[in-house]
Structures
1.
Amino acid sequence: MSRYLAVEWDQSEVRLAAAASGAGGTVIERAVSIPRGPVAGGDRNADQGPPEEELGERIRQALAGIGRADTLVAVGRASVELRQLSVPPAPAEELPDMVRFQALREFNAMEENWLLDFVPLQLESDEEQAVLAAAMSPETFHQIQGACQAAGLKPRRMILRPFGAASLVRRSRPDLANGVRLLVDLLEDESDLTAVADGQVVFLRTARLPGDPLASAEAAGALVAEIRRTVAAVRNQMGGRAVDSIVLFGAGDPYLALAEKVHEQLERPCESFDPLSGLRLGRAVEKDPPAHPGRFAPLLGMLLDEAEERPPATDFLHPRRPPEPPSRRNLYAGIGLAVALVVLVGLGWGWLHAQSLRQDIKRLAAQANRLDKDVARATKLVQAAKAIRQWTEQQTVWLDELRWLSEHFPPAEDAMLVNLELAPGRGRPQMDMEGLARDTAALQAMDRALGDQRHRVVGEGAG
């Protein structure tokens, strides 16, 4: 028998559900919650919750009586950055890289080291592919891992909680599979609002509330307003397609009354849904069901998916990635076999071929002797060409020298050139100049201007 554990927490409580799966089906054995009270010492606010070590201790308390199980962690909407992205149509194996590239451009704070997973959306468009992408920072990931480690748990999956709730509705209420449904998951002071179109999550958000909508008229009014805004947002994203009905997770008269209020104010069908209904429950859950079963919808959906080996829509521990390159083991084995066959054939054929090779050697030796003469003649040509190149490189480019002289010669009011002769000189090119200078100072200035590493001024007036 396989056992599975699903856990999540928020600022107010830790929730845990456990299931066992065997030949008879899946049984929900535990569904408990433990409040996260104020931290001892008074140095933190009560709504901040305990640190990771205390959170791990609360989880260990909830785990009492539960043996080893595969652990699934539900991640709240507030822990990730979520956005619908549009990318060009592409094969499935190219989509992960394209989505990450687009997410780095459009997400506000995302960096290369963030975890990213996404769900392709089946929207009618030939020009682009829509995806619902969720990104988690390394800090949030390490905090979740740290709390699990403190509780002695090793997560197998890390799933965005609204997808677990949507999966439970698809399984328990097949009559809601078609159309657009808005799932409302009430927590203590917030609500997850998830739009599901034809069984697929297409929109989700978390709304903060001023209190408990079941006990406060103000909070109930705020919830209705948030639902109204979400309905409008879904219509806009779905190209005018409206929400057909609203599903409120929860059981009992307070949830029925709240569902009726939502129905009256929004003029849209609204019903309450008990996540535990229709499931096989263990003795402990039947005897002591959770006070707010609606909050366990994501955990129950995750447990049932895992028991039936259905991969979740999102999993930050196993996000969508480009496929691994195909294994080359078979290729290498085939190459090895081919090489072995070649070697065997070569050994048999080699002796016969040796005679032919000897004849080729004789023929090539004679050809080499003839080519040696050609090489000798070519060597003489190369040496002659080298000498010509050296002679050419040693020639002076007089146009360059004249340009240099014009750039460095003093201004006309200081000196004037009367005669200029260019000649190779005694092993070194030289320019013989005759001219007039305004005075001795101008002549000395000219000597300094015309003398550098490549030029030396000699003769009368040189300084």
2.
Amino acid sequence: LFTRWTSQVRPETVHPEYPRPQMVREAWRNLNGLWDYAVVATDAPQPSKFDGKILVPFPIESALSGVGKRLDETSRLWYRRSFVVPKDWNGKRILLHFGAVDWDATVWVNGKQVGSHRGGYDPFRFDITDALKPGGSQELVVAVWDPTADGQAKGKQVRKPRGIWYTPSSGIWQTVWLEPVAATHLETLRIVPLFDESAVEIRPTIVGAPGSRLRLQVDVLESDRVIRSETFALELPGEGDASKRATPSLRVPVPDFKPWSPDSPFLYDLRITVIRDGQTVDRIGSYFGMRKISIGPDARGITRILLNNRFVFQIGFLDQGFWPDGLYTAPTDEALRFDIEFTKKLGMNMARKHVKVEMQRWYYWCDRLGLLVWQDMPSMAARRTPTPESRKQFELELKRLIETHINHPSIVMWIVFNEGWGQYDTERLVMSILIAVLLLCCITSWVAT
């Protein structure tokens, strides 16, 4: 099956948009496009010959990948491509990013293993600087194993699709990209709108040389105009400290702010500059919405979910995020936007992202266009008791989901379990999220506790 956007997909321009809208740097390089691929037995070594070309970032099972082949539990999918590091990145640390790979990935650069990752929905990165050659072409190889097993957080992916159970999306299914950073740079960013206090709290994690004395300049912008600017002094931990990172909490007033809501999804732009010895060493762009989600009485005293201290009736679809041509991966960014615009056109103000996590661009459009999101954690298998190992992995992926998506003003609900699928320790997990994110959390469960 194809969509109206299928014909717009081109190898040289596939998903060209910046993949991390809430932490944007100017310098980056997109590695999407045609890669070599091969499918071999799980215990076989890296193949010397590849089977053909695959279009990244579409799952191997999808039509848009150009392969359309099922990857089973006895097989491993290998990818290979070359790339060149721009000369003006010399002297920088080079980070290799993967938006998401389903499920177990190992990565080599120029024959050197640079890291591995397990989990099908969260972004990950490796510092590949020490594996790079002084110049010229660099080789990137990725091996992926995806058994689509009962103990995985896999949502509605199954080995034998039928009814409401769908085709797996194995391998690389989100954008792969490179970016250069200085030795001292912003690593992560947490943004907390303080609605009742007319302020925003910024919690950047900064990594760098031990004992570095830095200044952080935080600018809040409205329509490209700086409306508030604050500068903060910071010193990184010294040589004897276990961590070389610092995560300060920086409060910036936003007086007379414009609130974010589905009817008026106003976003403030944010710019954070890291300064060392008078020189800018890093700068990122981001955004935030001034919104509050809570539980409290409405005008009639009935306990409700409140948005910005007011009751807003939430109505929306169960959005499963499968595409006829790309499976987990939308054919284009325009297609992602269309889904959200059409949802609103039908009178909805909310979507429950059902047992799937989308690429960051989908949440960006929800933020920009004003669509509330109830976000599911992808479920393990229904009617199965998860093993201790599966539970540990599930909780790790749940933690990563929240850490990488919590800044989106559109997300107002976190759903740990769908119905009874893989459900366990419900109260403990729900309470841990409530404490961690100070947002709403629920289960849509057939198994009450």
3.
Amino acid sequence: MWVKLRVLAGCGNNSSKNEGKSEGTTENQNADNEADEAADDAEEGTEEVKGSDEGSGDITGTVDIFQYKVEINDALKAATEKYMELNPGVTINLETVGGGDDYGAALRTRMQASDQPEIFNIGGPQDVIDWEANLADLSAEGWVGNTVEGLLDDVTKDGKVYGMPLAIEGYGFVYNKEIFEAAGIDVAALKTYEDIDKAFGDLKAKIDNGDLKEQFPALEAVIEYPAKEKWVLGMHTGNIALGQEFANCTEAFNAKEVEFKYAAELKDLIDLQIKYTVNADNPAALNAVDYSMQAGGGLAIERVAAIQQGNWVYPIIAEVDSAVAEKLGIIPMPLKGVSEGNTPVGVPMYWAVNSQSDEKDQAAARDFLNWLYQSEEGMQIVVNDFGFIPPLTNFGDAKPSDPLGQAISEAANAGTIAPWVFNGCPTSWAENVLGAEIQSYIGGDKTWEEAVESAKQSWKESR
């Protein structure tokens, strides 16, 4: 069965993470332990579905949702409207914060207001500590017993579960299959750093020579690297190295210092991306390139052939050009000579329910999440409308239909994966410290050695 996954239990992302975002803020009112066998047969240990397509009808309350994932904003809004049709006594308001905004900072501001959200997003163990006073115990919810093994480890404290996983996601070099094929590149053979470097070099030569101009008139570079987005740099690029230094989130969380054992290899990976952008001769210009320019204004219009992103980017590409979206695949990002051919896979964020909210509003929030992830209608929304890889084992044969979701599923099933550990970093460190230090290196303000030492010192001071 499709959900027989092998995933590394290890963090999704810190609450300051802005992974998978498009530009701007939208408001709408109305991956500790490795999972040896993440879900050995969905039939085993699966509890009865608790949600109902008909709705309970007698539930009342107001639920404010404050979430970070802009790709699902419209679909989530539609889901809330459907739930309110089934439950007319409930009012749900949705606010989505994305783009260049810091979700963690926005959440802290929102939590200082009198109208705190009933549902919000948290990352791993550090967020559980930071937000413990606002986290309702979800241990008794029906979906807990259906969660893929290991995915609740990072939001479990003293035996209590404080978060519901949004999805299983993965990332790498998202690439346009048609462009690589036109250049005569066999992507299936790209495993090592040297393989990818040579392939990118061959593609660059064909772009520069105009060999692909007739078929892809907008194509100007192999890759786009959005260095303006610190979450891309510090969380995702940085995780390629940190995920080999620490076995999982818990190990990173407990570490008093970060050694940066693979700092040289991380530099190689960053330099690899820089040299195949249109700004290779002026890297500082990359610090002005954002997610929107990289995805919708880059890969989606075939201005570039690849970007460092994950399966969450599919809806953004499809919104611009559905035909291009269907051509996409994922090349694993290499840590030279250390981990090659592996795709980081984990939980991006968790849904949390605010324990400080009114009891009836908390009950409505719980019921909405149960309906969304455990009713037949809700599960179809999660898979088909959100495009999520389900984090629960009782979704049956439901699986993502998009090529990126399929690629991550295949990697998870094959076991060719690496952990997400950046949720084990000190609060905001991965994005706002390591990400900023990488920006300084790219911009020429610091040497690589200076950037690394500064990041190491900040980690130590934070612990």
